[in-house]
Design goal:
single chain; mainly alpha; about 0% strand; elongated; HEAT_ECM29; about 1200 residues; Leucine-rich Repeat Variant
Length: about 1200
C-alpha cells in the first residue's frame, strides 16, 4: 500500500497541469502533519510522549511529505521534479540557484508559507536525517527565506545537537554541521567555535568538531580573524599528520577542504593577506607533500573519501597570489595521483583539482552552491588580469597533458590524463578561454586517439570529451570533426600524424591491427552518438555512408558496442522512420562484403543483421543475389567460431523462409527465375557439401521448395530428383555401414531390407512423390537418362531402390505419360534387367518389382528379352540365379497380361519351384508341360536338391488326381520314374518312391486293369530290385512302395513274394544265427537289419494283406497274429498295430462294396421280373435273338438262380 501511495504521488508530480498550487500545498501538509503546536513551542521534541499520541505520524510520512513538497517546488520553478519512487534521492546542485531565486521572489508575499515549508523539512530531518533533506533546509537558510520563531529554533538546535552527538556517519555529520552552523546566531557561532577549540585540545575528539569548525569559520556573516582560521587549519593538519582514528582523519580532511574552499571569501583583504603570509613556503610544501601522499597512497586504511578530500585540499591551496614554485608543487602532487591503478573516480576529482589550482580563488568550485551559478560567480570574481594568468596556466596544463601525459607507457596514467583533459574541457566550457578555442583541433585529435584505449571507460570519457569539443567549435570545425568521426566509424583509420625523420613506419598489412580498430570504432560510436544528438543536420550528408555500417554494428557481439550503436541508430531514425527501407540495398551490399570478413565479430554481426534485414526489407535487387548469398552463408556456416555458426544459421533460416515464399507457384515467372538462380547453388554447394549441417539444411530447403513451387518446378525436376535420390544413401548413418561390413549374408539381407523400408518412408521419398504429378513428356525424356544412371552406377543401396520406387510411382500415376515414352522405358528395362545380376538380394527384389510395373509400358522386344532371361535362369543350376528369377516371376504375377502368350513356357517352371496345394487348376491346364519339365530336370540335373524338387513336383501332380483318367500318360510317368531309380543312391532319392506311391494311389487301379500278369511282373521288377539296397532308409521306402504296388494291382503272387521277404527279415533278426530254412532272398542279406529298419517296413504288411482273399488271407492274418505274440521288439509291434487299422478299414470297404453290389443286382432282378411279366401279358415285344443271349447270360448269375420268379424265364418266347 505504501509503494502504491508513493507511486501515485510521483505520478501527480510528473504532470505539471495536475500539480496543486505550491503555497496551498505547503499549508495543507503543515496542517495535516499536526505541526501547529511545534511552531508555538507547546510540544517538547526531546520527550517520547509525542511519539505515543494518536495524531503523530510515522517518521517516513514526514520524509515523503518533505520530498513531495520539494518536487512541487521544482515544478513551480519549471524544473524537472525528482522521482519519489527511487530508493536514493540525489540532489541536483544546478537547481539550487534557480530555486533560491524563486524563493526570494515569493518571500515578500508568502514568507509564512516558506516558514511552514522549512518546518516540515526540519521535522523530517528530526525524524529521519538524510543528506538531501538537510540540503533542502540549508537552501532555505542560506538565502534567508526561512524565519523561525525563537522557541522553534531553540527546539531545532537542541535536536540537532542530539543528532550530532549520536550520529557517526561522516556525510550526515558534515551536512548536519552545516545546517547547525546556519541555524545559529553570530554569538552562538562564536561560542560554539570556542567550545570546539577546547575539544581539539582534549584527548577525545568528536567527529562533528572538525566539520563545525570549518562551517562556522566560513560563514560570511561572522567576522573571524586570520589567526582563528589559521588555528583551525593547524589543528586539522595536526589530526591529518597523526592519523588519529579513521573517522577523525576523514572528517579532518573533508573539513580542511571545505575550509580552504570558502575561507578566502569570509575574510577581508587585510585578513586574507595575513592568512597567506602566515604560512611559509616550507610549511606549504610540507602540507602539499602530506596531502599528495594521502591522495596517491595505496593503503587500505585510506578510503576513497579521504583521498578525494586530500585532492580537493591540493586544488584549493592554489591562489592567484601563490608563487610559481608552489603552484608547480601542487601540480606535481596532483599528477602523481594518476599513477594510482584503477581509480577513475579519484581522477575526476584530480581533474577538478587541476582546474581549481589553475583558477585559484576564481574557481567556480568555491562558489556558494545554494545561491550562486557558475556564470554569476565567474562574472563577479574573474578580472582581466586574473583571466590572463589563468589562460597561461590552462595552456601550460594542456601542453603537459596532450604532449606528455597522454603518451605515457603507463596505461593508468594515460587513462588519468584523458579524464583530466575531459574534466578541464568540461569546466572551461563556460569561460571559453582563448587557449582552448585555439587548440580545439589538437584537443579533438587527443580525444580521438583516446578512443583507441583498451579500457572502455577511457573510450567513453574520450567520446564525452568529443561532445564537449563539438559544442565549443565553430560550424567549420564541426564539419571537420564530423567527417573525421565518420571516417573512423567506417574504416577504423586513425588520423595520420606528420612523418618525421625518426618516425617508425609499419608494414601495410599490419597497419590496422584489429584491437586498435575495434577500440577506435567503439569510441567513435560514443562520440558519434553525442554529436548526433547535438547536430543532426550536420550528419545528414553522411547517412548513406553510415547507415549500412550502423545497421550491422547494432548486432555486434559486444554488448557495449551494441548498446552504443542502438542509441546512435535511435538518434538517426528519430526523424526518419524509413531509414532501413530507404537504404536496404546499400545495407545488403555492405553485409554481403562483411560476411567473409577476417574478424569473427564482423562475420557474426553481419549474419545477425542480414537475418533481420531479409525478414523485413527484402527488395528485388536483394533477391537477384540470393544465389551468391547462399554460397557465402554455406561457407560461414562452417566457421571456426561457434557463435558465428549460430548466427549464420539464423541468417540462413531467414533466407530460406524468403526463398520458399518467393518460389511459390503464385509468383509465376519470377519464381522460376529465382529457382534457376538458387537451386544449382543449393545442390552443388549445399547438398554436395562435406558439412553435415549444410547438407541437411539444403535438403530441407529443396523439400520445402518442392511442396510450394508447383508447376514452376518443372524446368528443374531433372536436377532435383537425382539430388534427392542420392541423399537417400548419403544421409544414412555410418553405423549402418559398420553393421553391414560385419554381418552374415542373411543378416545383411535383413539389414538392407530395413534400410530400404526406412528410405522409402523418408521425407526425401515423400518429396519425390510430390514431383511425380509434375513430370511431363519433355521432363521425363531428360530425367530418364539420369534415372538410368542412378540405377546403373549408384553406390548406395537406398538410392537404387529409391529410384525403383520413383519409377513405380510414375507407372502407377502417369501411365499415359509412360505409354508415350516407350524408348525411355526400354532403356530403364534394360538397366533393370542387368541389375538382376547384382549380388545384393534386396536390389534384385526391388529391381524385379520395378520391372513388373514398367514392362507394360515397354516394347514387345523387351518383354521377350525378359521371358528369355527367365527361361535361361530357371534351367541354371545356380540357386541364387533361380531365386532372382523367382522374385521376378512373383513380381510379374501382378501383371499377368505380360505373360499371357508365354504361360505354357513359364508356368511349369513356376510350378516346379512352387508346388503348393492351390495349384490344381494350373496342373490341369499345364500338367503335361509340368511333367515334362520335371522329368527333364530329374534326368539331366546334377544337383540332388533339384532332382528331389522335381520328384516333389511329380508327387504333387500325381496326388492332384489329374492323371487318374489319363492311363496312358500315367503309365508313361510310371516308367520314367522307375527308370530313374537305377543307379547310385543320392540324397533325396526317396522322393521318387513318394512320387511313385502318389501315382499308384491316384491311377493304380486303372493301370492294374490295363496290365496283364506279365506286364504287372515287368512293372514290378524295377521296384523290387531297389529292395535289395544296403541303405536301410532307402530300402525301407522301397518296401513300402512295393507293398502299395501289390495293394493296387491285387496280384497275390508278387504280394506273397514281398510278404515272404518281410517275414524272413523279421525271423533273421529274431534268431541268433541263420537257420537252414532261410530262403534265397534272406541269404542275400549280408548283414543284420536294425530294429529301426523293421519298424519302417512292418507297416507294409497291412498293405500286402489287401492283396489276398479267402484262405490265403486267413493264413496271412494268422501269421500277423503270431508276429504280434512273438518276442520281437515292442516298437515293431507298435508300428504294425498302428498300420493295421488301414487294412481293416479297407477290408470293410471291400465287403461293403460287395454288399452294395448284391443289393443293386437284386434291384435289377426286380426290373427284369417286371419286364418278363409285361412280355407274358403281351404288353411288350422282345427281340428273340437278343432275348436268348441275355437269358443265357442271366442264367449263369447267382442272383438269377436264387430268384423264384425267373425260374420259367427260358420258357418265354
Amino acid at each position: 500500500m505504501k509503494h502504491e501511495a508513493v507511486r501515485i504521488l510521483d505520478l501527480s508530480v510528473a504532470d505539471p497541469t495536475r500539480t496543486p498550487k505550491f503555497e496551498d500545498l505547503v499549508a495543507f501538509f503543515h496542517r495535516k502533519l499536526n505541526l501547529q503546536d511545534a511552531t508555538e513551542g507547546a510540544v517538547d521534541f526531546l520527550t517520547d510522549e509525542v511519539k505515543k499520541k494518536k495524531e503523530t505520524f510515522a517518521d517516513e510520512v514526514f520524509h515523503i511529505s518533505a520530498l513531495y513538497l520539494y518536487a512541487n517546488l521544482q515544478v513551480a520553478c519549471s524544473l524537472q521534479p525528482l522521482s519519489l519512487t527511487e530508493s536514493d534521492v540525489f540532489s541536483r546542485t544546478s537547481d539550487y540557484p534557480v530555486i533560491s531565486r524563486y524563493l526570494l521572489s515569493i518571500s515578500e508575499e508568502h514568507r509564512g508559507i516558506l516558514n511552514l515549508f522549512l518546518e516540515v523539512v526540519l521535522k523530517a530531518i528530526e525524524a529521519q536525517p538524510a543528506n538531501f533533506l538537510i540540503e533542502m533546509a540549508c537552501l532555505f537558510l542560506h538565502n534567508g527565506s526561512g524565519n523561525l520563531s525563537h522557541n522553534y529554533r531553540a527546539t531545532t538546535v537542541a535536536w540537532l545537537e542530539r543528532h550530532l552527538n549520536s550520529n557517526s556517519h561522516i556525510t550526515i555529520c558534515a551536512k548536519l554541521s552545516e545546517l547547525y552552523s546556519l541555524i545559529l546566531t553570530d554569538m552562538e557561532r562564536k561560542k560554539c567555535l570556542e567550545q570546539c577549540f577546547k575539544q581539539f585540545d582534549s584527548d577525545k575528539l568528536s567527529v562533528q568538531i572538525p566539520w563545525l569548525c570549518a562551517y562556522l569559520a566560513t560563514q560570511p556573516s561572522v567576522n573571524f580573524t586570520a589567526e582563528e582560521i589559521n588555528g583551525i587549519k593547524v589543528r586539522l593538519v595536526k589530526i591529518i599528520e597523526t592519523l588519529s582514528g579513521q573517522q577523525n582523519f576523514e572528517a579532518a580532511c573533508g573539513s580542511l577542504a571545505e575550509l580552504l574552499r570558502r575561507t578566502v571569501f569570509g575574510l577581508n583583504g587585510i585578513e586574507k593577506i595575513t592568512l597567506v603570509s602566515s604560512v611559509s613556503d616550507n610549511q606549504f610544501c610540507s602540507l602539499c607533500e602530506l596531502l599528495g601522499k594521502i591522495a596517491a597512497s595505496r593503503k587500505d586504511i585510506l578510503t576513497l573519501k579521504m583521498k578525494e578530500s586530500a585532492v580537493k585540499c591540493l586544488g584549493f591551496l592554489s591562489l592567484h597570489s601563490s608563487s610559481t614554485v608552489l603552484y608547480e608543487k601542487i601540480l606535481a602532487q596532483l599528477f602523481a595521483c594518476g599513477e594510482v591503478a584503477a581509480q577513475p573516480e579519484l581522477q575526476f576529482i584530480v581533474g577538478n583539482a587541476l582546474f581549481d589550482a589553475a583558477f585559484g580563488e576564481s574557481s567556480p568550485s568555491r562558489r556558494n552552491i545554494f545561491v550562486e551559478t557558475e556564470k554569476y560567480f565567474l562574472a563577479r570574481n574573474l578580472s582581466i588580469t586574473k583571466l590572463d594568468n589563468i589562460e597561461k596556466k590552462i595552456a601550460n596544463l594542456l601542453e603537459i597533458l596532450m604532449n606528455v601525459k597522454l603518451h605515457q607507457a603507463n596505461r593508468h596514467l594515460r587513462q588519468a590524463a584523458l579524464i583530466w583533459l575531459f574534466t578541464l574541457m568540461k569546466r572551461c566550457a563556460v569561460t571559453k578561454l582563448n587557449c582552448i578555442m585555439d587548440s580545439l583541433g589538437s584537443i579533438q585529435h587527443a580525444f580521438i586517439n583516446g578512443l583507441t584505449e583498451t579500457n572502455e571507460f577511457s573510450q567513453e570519457v574520450a567520446s564525452e570529451g568529443l561532445g564537449v569539443i563539438f559544442e565549443l567549435g565553430s560550424e567549420e570545425q564541426k564539419k571537420i570533426m564530423v567527417e573525421e568521426l565518420v571516417n573512423t566509424l567506417s574504416t577504423g583509420r586513425k588520423r595520420l600524424d606528420p612523418i618525421a625523420p625518426n618516425t617508425r613506419l609499419f608494414a601495410k598489412e599490419k597497419k590496422f591491427v584489429f584491437s586498435i580498430y575495434f577500440r577506435k570504432f567503439l569510441g567513435a560510436a560514443f562520440g558519434f552518438n553525442i554529436i548526433m544528438q547535438q547536430a543532426e543536420s550536420v550528419m545528414e550528408p553522411y547517412l548513406a555512408q553510415l547507415v549500412p555500417k550502423l545497421y550491422r554494428y547494432r548486432y555486434d557481439p559486444d554488448l557495449k558496442v551494441q548498446g552504443a550503436m542502438r542509441s546512435i541508430w535511435q538518434a538517426v531514425t528519430v526523424s526518419k522512420k524509413s531509414v532501413t527501407e530507404e537504404y536496404a540495398d546499400a545495407i545488403f551490399n555492405e553485409l554481403l562484403l562483411t560476411l567473409t570478413d577476417p574478424q569473427w565479430r564482423t562475420r557474426e554481426s553481419s549474419c545477425l543483421a542480414l537475418a533481420d534485414l531479409l525478414s523485413g526489407y527484402c527488395t528485388d535487387k536483394i533477391t537477384e543475389r540470393f544465389g551468391q548469398l547462399f554460397e557465402i552463408l554455406y561457407r560461414v556456416q562452417d566457421d571456426v567460431k561457434e557463435s558465428v555458426r549460430i548466427a549464420a544459421g539464423r541468417a540462413l533460416s531467414s533466407l530460406i523462409k524468403i526463398t520458399v515464399r518467393k518460389c511459390s507457384s503464385v509468383n509465376g515467372a519470377k519464381a522460376t527465375q529465382l529457382l534457376g538462380m538458387v537451386l544449382p547453388i543449393i545442390i552443388e554447394k549445399g547438398v554436395g557439401s562435406s558439412i553435415k549441417s549444410n547438407k541437411m539444411l539444403s535438403l530441407n530447403i529443396i523439400m520445402d521448395i518442392v511442396k510450394e513451387a508447383g508447376l514452376t518446378l518443372q524446368e528443374h525436376i531433372n536436377i532435383i530428383v537425382p539430388c534427392l535420390l542420392d541423399s537417400l544413401s548419403e544421409e544414412e548413418s555410418t553405423f549402418l555401414n559398420y553393421l553391414a561390413a560385419r554381418s552374415s549374408l542373411d543378416e545383411l539381407e535383413v539389414l538392407d531390407s530395413a534400410r530400404m523400408s526406412v528410405a522409402h518412408s523418408s521425407p526425401m521419398m515423400s518429396t519425390l512423390r510430390y514431383i511425380v504429378p509434375l513430370v511431363n513428356d519433355y521432363v521425363f525424356n531428360s530425367l530418364g537418362d539420369k534415372l538410368v544412371e542412378q540405377l546403373r552406377s549408384s553406390v548406395g543401396i537406398t538410392t537404387r531402390t529409391g529410384a525403383c520406387q520413383f519409377i513405380i510411382d510414375l507407372c502407377l500415376q502417369r501411365q499415359q505419360l509412360l505409354m508415350s515414352c516407350r524408348s525411355s522405358c526400354d532403356k530403364m528395362v534394360r538397366v533393370l534387367l542387368n541389375g538382376l545380376n547384382d549380388r545384393n538380394p534386396v536390389i534384385k527384389k526391388q529391381f524385379s518389382s520395378c520391372l513388373s510395373y514398367l514392362l507394360p509400358f515397354s516394347s514387345k522386344r523387351e518383354v521377350n528379352r525378359i521371358l528369355d532371361y527367365i527361361k535361361q535362369k530357371l534351367r541354371n543350376e545356380q540357386d541364387e540365379e533361380k531365386m532372382t528369377v523367382l522374385h521376378l516371376l512373383r513380381a510379374l504375377s501382378r501383371n499377368t497380361e505380360i505373360l499371357s502368350e508365354s504361360l505354357s513356357a513359364v508356368v511349369p517352371f513356376i510350378f516346379l519351384y512352387k508346388c503348393q496345394e492351390d495349384t490344381s487348376s494350373a496342373m490341369r491346364l499345364y500338367r503335361k508341360e509340368m511333367i515334362e519339365v520335371a522329368l527333364v530336370t530329374l534326368n539331366t540335373s546334377s544337383i540332388f536338391a533339384i532332382k528331389a524338387q522335381a520328384a516333389k513336383v511329380l508327387t504333387t501332380v500325381a496326388e492332384s488326381g489329374v492323371l487318374s483318367d489319363d492311363v496312358g500318360y500315367a503309365e508313361l510317368l510310371y516308367d520314367n520314374l522307375t527308370s530313374a531309380l537305377h543307379g547310385r543312391i543320392w540324397d533325396g532319392k526317396e522322393k521318387l518312391f513318394e512320387a511313385i506311391g502318389a501315382l499308384l494311389r491316384s491311377a493304380g487301379k486303372n493301370l492294374a486293369l490295363k496290365w496283364d500278369e506279365t506286364a504287372i511282373e515287368t512293372k514290378f521288377l524295377p521296384l523290387w530290385e531297389q529292395c535289395s539296397k544296403k541303405s536301410e532308409k532307402y530300402n525301407g521306402e522301397a518296401i513300402l512302395c512295393v507293398a502299395l504296388f501289390c495293394e493296387m494291382t491285387a496280384y497275390n503272387k508278387i504280394a506273397q513274394q514281398v510278404m515272404s521277404y518281410i517275414y524272413n527279415v523279421i525271423n533273421y533278426n529274431l534268431s541268433e544265427s541263420n537257420s537252414d530254412d532261410t530262403t534265397s532272398e534272406v541269404s542275400s542279406i549280408n548283414h543284420p537289419r536294425t530294429y529301426d529298419y523293421l519298424i519302417k517296413i512292418v507297416p507294409a504288411i497291412a498293405h500286402l494283406l489287401l492283396s489276398f482273399d479267402g484262405a490265403e488271407l486267413f493264413d496271412h492274418v494268422e501269421q500277423v497274429v503270431a508276429l504280434l505274440k512273438s518276442s520281437i521288439f515292442w516298437k515293431v509291434k507298435q508300428a504294425l498295430i498302428i498300420e493295421l487299422p488301414y487294412f481293416i478299414e479297407n477290408l470293410l470297404l471291400t465287403e461293403n462294396d460287395i454288399s452294395q453290389r448284391r443289393t443293386f443286382a437284386q434291384q435289377c432282378c426286380l426290373v427284369l421280373e417286371y419286364i418278363v411279366k409285361r412280355t407274358r401279358n403281351k404288353e411288350c415285344i422282345l427281340s428273340l435273338h437278343k432275348h436268348k443271349d441275355i437269358m443265357e447270360t442271366l442264367m449263369k448269375t447267382t442272383i438269377v438262380k436264387s430268384s423264384a420268379l425267373l425260374d420259367n424265364l427260358l420258357k418265354c418266347e
